[in-house]
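As a warm-up, study this chain.
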Amino acid sequence: MDRDQAKADQAKPLLGDDELAAHPTVFVPDLLQGKVALVSGASGGIGRAIAFLFARLGAHVALAGRNKDKLDALAAALGAHGLQCSVHAADNRDPDAVTALIEDVWAARGQLDHLVNSAGGQFPQAAIDFSVKGWNAVIDTNLGGTWHMMQAAARAWRARKASGSVVNIVVVTTHGLYGIAHSIAARSGVIGLTRAVAVEWAPLGIRINCVAPGAIETEGWNVYAPGARAALPRSNPMMRAGSPWDIAEACVYLSAPSGRFITGETLTVDGGGQLWGETWTTGKPDYFGGENR
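Now compare it with the structure written out below.
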């Protein structure tokens, strides 16, 4: 890709629902026909793209999240494009609510084939200033909530002697991401859990993997200061931001038969950012030759 094309890609606006319903994909239209996929955090930027793509490929998508109004709006958008979905409001931090969510999907659809854990979030702050409440909020959602979903789904598959796949959305934890140490801790825990249970759950026919997005432009970027947002596309050697669609296609790759011999892995989708560059969500300190914004 030449520099002009890279700049053009970087300038593309966020994909709206009409664009998500028509955006080109490398996958055949009926790839997931007859499957049921549960997507947590479905109304977020990445979760929304995942929901649209899974539904476009033939799956019934169970939309999960804490805000029912947002889920209803997403369901209406999917329905307007003739895509199958259902709404299941639940808090992934509540183990009982998560168990009920999984059972509701099984009761309504008679199966669950894929789980994508996209729910999560964080806020930029120097780690030394984290409050107990702020730390717990990020850990409970990103690590605890993801674990509750993983375990409840696995237990349901075991009870029914059914197989399934899990994809956990994490972040790049290995290099150059500063100012969200609570999220790094939580997502590192998810990656460690994924590697451990990939072995434990293999006899049950359950595959589990992670997707680690780099600088993916979503509405969530608004939590960062303008200077930090402007620097994000320059945090990788491709010198541009990625799209939620890139993450959605990675999730399908790992969930579909294309990923049938892959488990316990983390697929990094960051434009090479983990090999080059750095991201300071709180601004680069003068100590490191930057300006603390």
